Predict the 3D structure of the following.
Amino acid sequence: MCGIVGLFIKNPAMEANLGNWLSDMLIEMTDRGPDSAGIAIYRNPVAANQTKITLLSRDEDIDWKKLGEQLKKDLHAAFEIEPVLNHAIVTTDANADDIKTWLEQNRPEILVNASGKVIEAYKQIGLPENLIERFNVRKMQGTHALGHSRMATESNVTTEHSHPFATGEDLCLVHNGSLSNHNRLRTFLRDQKIKFQTDNDSEVAAGYLTWRLREGDSLEQALEAAMKDLDGFYTFAIGTQDGFAVLRDPIGCKPAVMAETDDWAAMASEFRAIECLPGAESAKIWEPEPSRIYSWQRD
Amino acid sequence: MIEIDLDKVTIREFNQQLHDLNGTDKKEAYKIMNPRGKHSVAVGADAPVDITVEGHVGYYCGGMNKHANIDIKGNAGPGVAENIMSGCVRVQGNTSQYAGATGRGGMLVIEGDASSRCGISMKGVDIVVGGSVDNMSAFMGQAGNLVVCGNAGHALGDSLYEVKIYVQGEVKSLGADCVEKEMTEEHVAKLAELLEKAKINADPRKFRRYGSARKLYNFKIDNARLPE
């Protein structure tokens, strides 16, 4: 089991509520996944020549300022670091791949949670309510967000095994289900120079999409290909720069409910995580069909 | 009429109230407010009570129901009326996966659509769906009737035993060993009776009937094994 939620604000006047509403949704999914929790939120876009990166340190006592100075010196680029406990939001004009390579070589305890223009991602072990309180999620404003509550089945309970998993620029994935061919696929993807930080199956799905998108697929094409190559069962919610997409495996093994009003579109593992949203009583509600891609984006 | 507000009473408390009537012939009427997608609403009833649920429910509503009449004024999550024994569960909206799974008797009426595996392994329940059903419905169905006024998804009636399936609309594909069968006057009469009982308005003559071809392994006498 696991719980996944996604919320997309259609009415810009409602963006201030995003973090608060997503928090209610994710807390409702606590008993589907009390091992760890994570969110990805799309907000505060950086300038066209800049990249925003969410870093996560396995060491809680990290000196982010010192890290920023090191990065500036070695990569000869501007770095603005906003520390958020063991996470940090980095705005830079350096290349994201160069930063990843530098971190691997110099600071392997630091992971890249997400990178792009608008995405930020936070995750840790423990209950959703702890994550929400610790990172002040209720106060976060933005256009859309995903959340995940994990009940670990196939790999360890650690922060880096938590969802969401980044899958390329401004893309991330949360997953309910499990994949059976992830070891073979990980080996194949490593040969394609896709990097993995854990032995988690969902990270392989994220890496697979990263690979397809790098090869020039659209998100829709990448998901069509994923349906052929991923063996197992899954409901995915995938965050994109301007919206989100939902896909269930061809058997429709894992639950999913979707709902939409004039103000928002939402998906969740169960209806009770949508019921808490204002306007849910008059929303259009339906169960997404197996192997059909649903997506929303801003016009 | 006893009103139960699930914002104030826990599911466990309400279900216990129901179970306290089990085995009696008390005809209490309950109105359930604020279900909010909660799981296991009115599970395990065993008395001829009337239960109206004012909203959407989560997993397993009306599971193992015996004698009770349950009317859900909304959608139902996975496993509604799972293993129903008798009585009636009515869903005025849509249902999620495996509605009426393993049901042994009674009736499940879904006025909207049902998703995948509706009536999986049904063993005697009658299921009447006003809308459509999705993939793998009535999989391994052993006894009872599945009536679908709309369309059916892929692999309808896969590995079927003795369930009779009536579909008015399109069937995307039939599952292994499921075939179309002749609709005799006897079947038209039985279907008319089911539709009337379910209070679903449809013309029984517009339906096609599907059932088991009885060609899989278990149907071959040479494969029968007596206990040693």
Summary: The two ends of chain A are 34 Å apart (CA to CA). Chain A touches chain B at residues 251-252, 255, 257, 270-276, 285-287, 289-290 (CB under 8 Å). The mean pLDDT of chain A is 94. The longest helix of chain A spans residues 201-214.
